[in-house]
Design brief:
Elements: E1 10-12, H1 21-26, H2 37-54, E2 59-64, H3 67-77, E3 84-89, H4 92-103, E4 107-112, H5 121-130, E5 136-140, E6 142-143, E7 148-149, H6 152-160, E8 165-169, E9 188-190, E10 203-208, H7 210-218, H8 230-237, H9 249-265, H10 267-287, E11 303-307, H11 314-325, E12 327-331, E13 340-344, H12 352-365
Parallel strand pairs: 1-12, 3-4, 3-5, 5-8, 8-9
Antiparallel strand pairs: 2-10, 6-7, 9-10, 11-13, 12-13
Helix pairs in contact: 2-9, 5-6, 10-12
């Protein structure tokens, strides 16, 4: 084997996005022990910064694992085998929640609605009336497979009238879109480090309500996974720093730096950068007469879905972009497979010059 050298790619797919160079540099700091008091200081700052990012007064931490580890941890901890769980399902990642819930033996009530549109909140209202014994409601804030932003505030109001806990996927929305964890009555939110936070993949920054924490501590049976037990993870990240597993120390350095950079930029400015670049991309795509299938009211800024013209071969086109232009874009998933391209502008990949580059390529090649 030779020393590893990877050339920079312009990553404009659905994630991961490029990591900020300062974030990557921060990872080359010396390793500290996961129980070292100096490391606890770093951990405490990351925790407080995540609480601020999610807008919660309760708990925050980062799981060692990708976004799906947060998904699996939430489903493992917030309901017990046989409990009723409503999953709002309007895309590929919602369907992944259902697959995981099935493995955990939860009684799933899937609320399936059309891909590419926001789910009508009255579906959830009706389902909770029909199933008042529901223990957990699960929804996705930014569905990366369809490029749709779901109104979580409205769903949260509905869930708050029931006894159910409320869990949200924020993998694509974190740091790219406003999330008001406490105000929206969320009990558990998970995300990923690799998109709008501009960190490498490998951590799942989460927030958890005190209500969810108490539920996990007091449930009849312990969560089936020790590693993903959110109460144990929270006890390590809390002021007592109760030991659990060896956390991904260098990834936490990276998260620290990405949160510091976010603070420096300002959260509103970060959201606005995503908005402005997405608007520029959408205007350019429309100008070259490409179709944007998602309605303006439902669109995500972080990810734009564009209909693939019939004369273009999906795989050939995306490979050409990689090999001739050094640019990655995403393919369609699930109901959208083979029908669309997905262009992500997230975190470090969300730059005006990249929008110019991808529009140039589309003009030449389509
Ligand atoms: C909305 C959403 N949820 C969950 C995931 C899974 O995250 P990961 O691939 O980091 O496990 C993704 C990945 O892109 C996603 O976009």
């Amino acid at each position: 084997m030779k020393p590893l050298k990877v050339n920079k790619r312009i990553i404009l797919g659905p994630g991961p996005s490029s990591a900020n160079p300062d974030v990557l540099k921060s990872m080359s700091n010396p390793i500290l022990g996961y129980l070292d008091p100096d490391f606890f200081k770093i951990l405490d700052e990351v925790r407080e910064s995540l609480k601020n990012l999610y807008r919660t007064k309760d708990h925050a931490f980062a799981l060692s694992g990708s976004g799906s580890s947060g998904m699996e941890a939430g489903l493992t901890c917030l309901a017990e085998r046989g409990d009723k769980v409503i999953v709002c399902a309007y895309g590929y990642f919602c369907e992944r929640q259902i697959l995981m819930a099935e493995r955990l033996g939860l009684e799933i009530i899937p609320l399936r609605s059309e891909w590419g549109k926001q789910m009508d909140p009255s579906l959830l209202e009706d389902a909770l009336k029909q199933h008042p014994d529901t223990k957990l409601v699960v929804a996705t804030h930014a569905e990366t497979s369809t490029g749709v932003l779901q109104n979580i505030e409205e769903l949260g109001k509905i869930v708050s009238k029931s006894d159910a806990l409320f869990m949200i996927d924020c993998v694509t929305s974190i740091a790219g879109t406003e999330i008001l964890f406490d105000d929206w009555n969320i009990d558990f939110a998970y995300s990923g480090s690799q998109k709008c936070l501009a960190s490498p993949p490998g951590l799942s920054p989460c927030a958890m309500s005190e209500k969810a924490y108490q539920y996990i501590k007091n449930r009849k049976t312990k969560p089936s996974s020790w590693y993903l037990d959110l109460s144990l993870v929270n006890d390590y990240w809390g002021s007592e720093h109760v030991p659990q597993y060896t956390v991904a120390v260098s990834s936490i350095y990276a998260l620290y730096e990405s949160l510091r950079l976010l603070d420096e930029e300002g959260i509103e400015n970060r959201w606005n950068r995503h908005k402005v670049n997405a608007e520029k991309l959408r205007a350019g795509l429309t100008e070259i007469e490409l179709n944007l299938p998602i309605s303006p009211n439902d669109r995500l800024d972080q990810l734009t879905v564009v209909t693939k013209p019939d004369h273009i071969d999906d795989v050939e086109f995306r490979n050409k972009l990689i090999y001739d232009y050094n640019i990655e874009i995403g393919r369609g998933l699930g109901d959208f497979a083979g029908k669309v391209f997905r262009i992500g502008l997230m975190g470090e990949s969300c730059k005006s010059e990249y929008v110019d580059q991808i529009l140039d390529v589309f003009r030449k090649e389509i």
